[in-house]
Design brief:
Order of helices and strands of chain B: EEEEEEEEEEEE
Largest interface: A-B, 30 and 27 residues
Oligomer: heterodimer
Distance between the termini of chain B: 41 Å
Number of helices of chain A: 0
Helix content of chain B: under 10%
Strand content of chain A: over 45%
Structural class of chain B: mainly beta
Shape of chain A: globular
Order of helices and strands of chain A: EEEEEEEEEEE
Radius of gyration of chain A: 13 Å
Radius of gyration of chain B: 14 Å
Shape of chain B: globular
Distance between the termini of chain A: 36 Å
C-alpha cells in the first residue's frame, strides 16, 4: 500500500492557460474523490468516481473543469482557461468501496497558483 | 443540510498538558464523524472515526474523540500534548443517507503546542 499520490505537487500558471493534475489512488480502491481547499478553509467536495463512472459533481465544478478516470485507476482533473480564483490546493482521496463508513485516504495535494 | 462547526480557529496548549479541539455537527439521522490532521503543505491524514458503538473512539498518535449525541459534539482529545502535534485539525461528517459519500469538513482548528 503506497498511498495516494498526486502529480505535480506544485503548479504555477498564467491566467488563461490550461492545467491538468493527476491522481493515483490506493490500488484496488473503487472510489476516488476530488476536493479543493482554499486558504483558511476546509476541503470542499468537487466530484467523485465509482470505478470509471463519474457519479456526482459539485456546483463548484464549473464548465471549465473536467475530470476523468478512464480505466478506473488513475484520474485526471483538467482546468481550462484558468482564473486567479482557481488558485487553491487540489486534493485527491480514495476509499475501498464508498460505503458511508469507509475511510477516505488523501494524497499530498497539488497546489495551483494562477498568476 | 449536513454541516460541522469548529468554533475555535486556534488552540494553544503547553507541551505535556491535555488538549481538546472542539467540533459540533448537524446531520439528520445517525452521523458518521471523522477527524483528520494536516501538516503544512501536506494532504490530510486520517486520525479516527466514529461510526457506532462506544462513544469514546481511540485513534492514531494517542488521539481520542468523544461522541456526545445530546450535545451533537465530537471533540478531539489527547491526554498529553507534544510539540509535534502542532498542525491543522479538521472535523468532517458524512451523511449516512446521502448518495454522494463525500465528506463535509469544518474550517479547521490550528493547534499550537509550545515547549
Amino acid at each position: 500500500d503506497t498511498g495516494v499520490s498526486q502529480d505535480p505537487r506544485h503548479k504555477i500558471t498564467k491566467r488563461g492557460q490550461n492545467v491538468t493534475f493527476r491522481c493515483d489512488p490506493i490500488s484496488e480502491h473503487n472510489r476516488l474523490y476530488w476536493y479543493r481547499q482554499t486558504l483558511g478553509q476546509g476541503p470542499e467536495f468537487l466530484t467523485y468516481f465509482q470505478n470509471e463512472a463519474q457519479l456526482e459533481k459539485s456546483r463548484l465544478l464549473s464548465d471549465r473543469f473536467s475530470a476523468e478516470r478512464p480505466k478506473g485507476s488513475f484520474s485526471t482533473l483538467e482546468i481550462q482557461r484558468t482564473e486567479q480564483g482557481d488558485s487553491a490546493m487540489y486534493l485527491c482521496a480514495s476509499s475501498p468501496a464508498g460505503g458511508p463508513t469507509d475511510t477516505q485516504y488523501f494524497g499530498p495535494g497539488t497546489r495551483l497558483t494562477v498568476l | 443540510a449536513q454541516s460541522v462547526a469548529q468554533p475555535e480557529d486556534q488552540v494553544n496548549v503547553a507541551e505535556g498538558n491535555p488538549l481538546t479541539v472542539k467540533c459540533t455537527y448537524s446531520v439528520s439521522g445517525n452521523p458518521y464523524l471523522f477527524w483528520y490532521v494536516q501538516y503544512p503543505n501536506r494532504g490530510l491524514q486520517f486520525l479516527l472515526k466514529y461510526i457506532t458503538g462506544d462513544n469514546l473512539v481511540k485513534g492514531s498518535y494517542g488521539f481520542e474523540a468523544e461522541f456526545n449525541k445530546s450535545q451533537t459534539s465530537f471533540h478531539l482529545k489527547k491526554p498529553s500534548a507534544l510539540v509535534s502535534d502542532s498542525a491543522l485539525y479538521f472535523c468532517a461528517v458524512r451523511d449516512p443517507g446521502g448518495s454522494q459519500g463525500n465528506l463535509i469538513f469544518g474550517k479547521g482548528t490550528k493547534l499550537s503546542v509550545k515547549p
